[in-house]
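Chapter summary example: a protein plus flavin-adenine dinucleotide.
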Amino acid sequence: MTETAATIETEALIVGGGLVGLTLGLALARGGVECVVVDALDPSSVTDAAFDGRVSAVAFATCRMFRALNMWDDLAAHAQPINDIVVSDSRGPRAADKAAAAPFFLHFDHREIGDEPLGHLIENRYTRLAQQEALEREPLVTLIAPDAVARVDYDARGATAELRSGRKVRGRVAFACDGRASPTREAAGIKLVKWTYPQVGIVTTVEHERPHEGVAQEYFLPAGPFAILPMVGNRSSLVWTEREELAPAFLALDDDQFTEEIANRFGPYLGKARPVGPRWSYPLGFHMAREYVRPRLALVGDAAHGVHPIAGQGLNLGLRDVAALAEVIVDTARLGLDIGADDVLKRYETWRRFDNTALALGMDALVHLFSNDVAPVRIARDIGLGIVNELPLLRRLFMRHAGGTVAMGGEKKLPRLLRGEAV
Ligand SMILES: Cc1cc2nc3c(=O)[nH]c(=O)nc-3n(C[C@H](O)[C@H](O)[C@H](O)COP(=O)(O)OP(=O)(O)OC[C@H]3O[C@@H](n4cnc5c(N)ncnc54)[C@H](O)[C@@H]3O)c2cc1C
C-alpha cells in the first residue's frame, strides 16, 4: 500500500468490512494480494454482545475455510458442533412436544456421511473477533474504520473511493461487500429481483436445564419456522419467525410473558428454558442482483443476494462467493495479469451466480411451503418429510449440500478454500 497526501493506492478496494468483507480481505492477503477494507462502523462496537444477537450456522466447508484463513484457533472454543438436524411439523401451543411426537419428521445424522459434524453454531461476535485477530497477522490487508465510503468512481484502470473523512482509496477493482442495502450496488445502477416476506425473525438466546447434544431442531408453526440452534454450554439460540403484524407485541412482552411464549413453542424436551440477554428482530426478504459485476466492480455476499434464514445459508453463500472470488483473483495476480479485467470478474460471476440463484430459489420455495397452514399443503409436506427421511441417498445429498461440501457442479468445482486448502 502506498499513501500520498491525497490517495491510498492498493490492489483491491473492499467496501464494507462485515463478516463477508473482512473474510475476503483475509483471503486475498493470504494469497499475496494487497487490499484495503473500508467499514463505516467502529471495530470495537461490532464485537460487543449488544451489537448483533445472531448465531450463525456455519457449514462444514465454511469452517474448513476459516481454518485455512488462520481463524479457527480463535474460534474453536466458541464453536458448537452440529451433530444432528431434526425437522418436523407442528402447530399451536407446546409445539415442541408435538414436534417430538410427530409421525413425519426428517432426521439428518452426521454419522451417515462421516465423522465430522454438519457444521458449527458460532456467535457472530466471535467470528468478528477472530477476523480482527487474524487481520493483525496479515500485513497485506489494511482496515480503515470507522469511515464510510461516500462514492466510488470507475475508470479504465481501476476504482477510486472517496471516504467521508476526505481520504481517497484507489485499487484496480472494487469489491462491494456493503450488505443488503449496498450503496455501491445502488450507485452503480445494478437492479435487484426482490420481495419481502410478511414475517420478522425474532432472535434470542435461552438457557436450558438439559444438554442439547448438538442437535439443531427446526419445526414449522403456522407463522413460519421456529429454530432451536445449539450453542456452547446448555444454551440455544432461537430464530422465531413470526407474522410481522404480531412480532412487535411479542417483542414488547415483559420477561415472564416472553418466557411463557417461548415455553409454549419450545416445550420441555430440554427442561426449563429461560431467555437470557436481549431480543432482536430482523425484517426478512429475498433479493438477487441481476448482475454481479460491472467494469472494475464485483458484488459479494448480501450486496449480491439475500435469503430467508430458514436454512441458515445467507452467510454461507456469501463466504462461498469469497472463496471463489479470492481464487479467481489470486490466480490472476500470480500470472501477473490485471485482477480487475472484465473477463476475470466474469469468471467469478459465472462460478457463483447459478449456485446462489438455485439455492436462494430453493429456500424461497421452502419458506412458502413451510409458512403455510392450509390443510392439504400441510399434509403433503408432512408426507414429503416422511418420504425423504426414508431415502438415505437423498438424505445424504441434502446433508452434503447443507455442509457445503458439494457445489452445484460437483465436488471439483468447490474453491480451494472450501476444500480447506490454501487459496
Ligand atoms: C435472523 C437471521 C439469522 C441468520 N442466520 C444465519 C445462519 O445461521 N447462517 C448463515 O449462513 N446466515 C445467516 N443469516 C444471514 C447472514 O447474517 C448474512 O447473510 C450476513 O451477515 C451478510 O454479511 P455481509 O458481510 O454480506 O453483510 P453485512 O453484515 O450487512 O455487512 C455489511 C458491512 O458493510 C458496511 N457498510 C455499509 N455501507 C458502507 C459504506 N458506505 N462504507 C463503508 N462500509 C459500509 C457495514 O458497516 C457492514 O459492516 C441470518 C440472517 C438473519 C436476518
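Key point: DSSP finds 13 helices and 22 strands in the chain.
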